[in-house]
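Example for tutorial group B:
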């Protein structure tokens, strides 16, 4: 079967309360050393991330490897415990939820992991892997569990007869479809897609992206789509957040971000993004220096040691997030160049 290009994102709902709101989220990992394993410092993997997500919306989260994208996704779901901040799901703070309450809420929030090979138990048939969350949460019992599994396999484009097979019998794309079926098993309203297509071939990536877009149009699922591929989020996401060294430096609609990037780091990323046209020259903006250590991030703006437009306050004063509107909609930039933006 010939794969099709990813379908464009469906129109985002307007003027609707947020399904998910993240406020000043932080995750610092302790660094230990010495004979007694004393805490010598901390890795500031996520340091003050804030955003909102509406029902049926896709927010793309992009940035270099190591910038904290995956840590954001896992902290939201409390797969790792955040160090601070708030995560509000329909107004309820997930970080203060008790274990029984969190168990109830997790029926409505799921994740598709990056590695389709490691995310499935090799000793468990794929049918049992998909059925496990259904049984754990008591959603169905008896023969109804099997009917639900068959329905999920059909929904993600796999024959229900495959449920008795084991993970090693499938290709990477098929395994990722099984991972998506498992994420859909409890009827979630929000799914974290953590580099869900990065381990797949290009043709298979298009199939998975089309599948995710179709499921969103049909079921109204909201996605936090974590990726390093700008071309993917351009077609799939309604809004895009750009991360650098644990912070969001720019957040805008997909159209605004690609047509009018404002932060120097965003411009550098887009300048290096390959264009499928041999007649368009690629002139990447080369950044000086290396990515600083998240253990000792730079003072002031974290990007200033590599920024071609850095000026006096950048080295000492942390920038504020300014709201600008180059075309339409919300567009926020974390940069001193826009301190006086209206």
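The residue assignment follows.
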């Amino acid at each position: 079967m010939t794969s099709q290009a990813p379908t464009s994102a469906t129109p985002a709902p307007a003027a609707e309360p947020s399904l998910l709101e993240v406020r000043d989220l932080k995750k610092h990992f302790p660094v230990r050393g010495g004979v007694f394993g004393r805490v010598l410092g901390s890795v500031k993997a996520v340091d003050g991330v804030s955003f909102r997500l509406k029902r049926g919306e896709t927010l793309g989260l992009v940035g270099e490897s190591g910038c904290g994208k995956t840590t954001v996704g896992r902290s939201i779901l409390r797969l790792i415990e955040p160090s601070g901040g708030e995560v509000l799901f329909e107004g309820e703070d997930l970080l203060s939820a008790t274990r029984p309450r969190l168990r109830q809420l997790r029926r409505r929030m799921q994740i598709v992991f990056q590695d389709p090979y490691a995310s499935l138990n090799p000793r468990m048939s794929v049918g049992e892997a998909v059925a496990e969350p259904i049984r754990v949460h008591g959603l169905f019992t008896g023969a109804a569990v099997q009917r639900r599994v068959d329905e999920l396999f059909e929904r993600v484009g796999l024959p229900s007869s495959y449920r008795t097979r084991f993970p090693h019998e499938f290709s990477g794309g098929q395994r990722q479809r099984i991972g998506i079926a498992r994420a859909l098993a409890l009827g979630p309203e929000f799914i974290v897609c953590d580099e869900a297509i990065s381990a797949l071939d290009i043709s298979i990536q298009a199939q998975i992206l089309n599948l995710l877009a179709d499921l969103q149009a049909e079921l109204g699922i909201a996605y936090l789509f974590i990726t390093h591929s700008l071309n993917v989020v351009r077609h799939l996401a309604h809004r895009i957040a750009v991360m650098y060294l644990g912070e969001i430096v720019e957040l805008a609609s997909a159209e605004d971000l690609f047509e009018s990037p404002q932060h120097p780091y965003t411009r550098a990323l887009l300048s290096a993004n390959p264009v499928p046209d041999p007649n368009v020259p690629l002139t990447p903006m080369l950044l000086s220096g290396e990515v600083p250590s998240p253990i000792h991030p730079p003072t002031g703006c974290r990007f200033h040691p590599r920024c071609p437009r850095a000026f006096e306050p950048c080295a000492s004063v942390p920038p504020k997030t300014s709201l600008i509107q180059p075309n339409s909609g919300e567009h926020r930039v974390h940069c001193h160049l826009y301190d006086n933006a209206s």
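Residues 202-219 form the longest helix (18 residues). Compare this with the pattern of hydrophobic and polar residues in the output above.
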